[in-house]
């Protein structure tokens, strides 16, 4: 199935969930997050789509006043087609339904994206930080992140500009 055919199936099944976004490639589709669990269940179980492999989940910060995004890379082993699903989130309250119970590898991906971007995956069975300490302040991969000066009284080292780091 081509990417256009996959998008047509999604548009037919979930017309209210589709988002027009001309900045995306032909292999990407943007969806509203309010039906994500229902859509994810459909695209995994529908025999014509059969997206049985979740390759990756990642966060993306579009910058300044733009939204945060979750991006899901999905693949069908049976049909050998792929799609990237993009879901945009409000920066102040970024949340979307968890899919870790559909694709178990989603557990680690959602935890990492939560840890780095602060996107909350509602219904996740164990959503907690995976890379930073539990009491770390902020979301390190957001473009507006300002690193902590100290952590439990220890000075957090900054890279020197002359070494090529900011």
Which key features would you list for this structure?
166 residues, alpha/beta, Beta Polymerase, domain 2, five-stranded mixed β-sheet, two-stranded parallel sheet, 3 helices
Question: How would you describe this structure to a colleague?
Answer:
With 166 residues, the chain is of the alpha/beta class. The protein has one domain (3-132): 2-Layer Sandwich (Beta Polymerase, domain 2), CATH 3.30.460.80. Helices cover 20% and strands 25% of the residues. The chain contains three helices and nine strands; from the N terminus they run H-E-E-H-E-E-E-E-H-E-E-E. It has helices at 3-13, 36-45, 106-117, and strands spanning 18-19, 28-31, 53-61, 68-75, 82-89, 95-97, 120-122, 150-151, 154-155. It has a five-stranded mixed sheet, covered by helices on one side. It has a two-stranded parallel ribbon with strand order 6-7. The longest helix is centred in the last third of the chain and has 12 residues, at 106-117. The radius of gyration is 18 Å and the shape is elongated. The termini are far apart. The mean pLDDT is 93.
């Amino acid at each position: 199935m081509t990417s256009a055919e996959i998008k047509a199936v999604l548009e037919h099944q979930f017309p209210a969930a589709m988002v027009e976004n001309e900045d995306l490639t032909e292999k990407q589709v943007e969806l509203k997050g309010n039906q994500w669990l229902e859509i994810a269940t459909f695209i995994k179980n529908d025999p014509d789509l059969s997206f049985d492999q979740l390759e990756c989940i990642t966060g993306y910060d579009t910058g300044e006043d733009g939204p945060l995004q979750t991006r899901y890379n999905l693949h069908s082993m049976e049909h050998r087609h792929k799609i990237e699903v993009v879901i945009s989130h409000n920066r102040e309250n970024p949340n979307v339904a968890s899919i870790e119970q559909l694709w178990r590898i989603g557990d680690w991906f959602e935890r990492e994206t939560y840890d780095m971007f602060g996107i909350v995956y509602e219904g996740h069975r164990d959503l907690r930080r995976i890379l930073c300490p539990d009491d770390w302040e902020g979301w390190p991969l957001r473009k507006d992140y300002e690193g902590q000066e100290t952590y439990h009284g220890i000075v957090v080292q900054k890279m020197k500009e002359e070494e090529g780091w900011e």
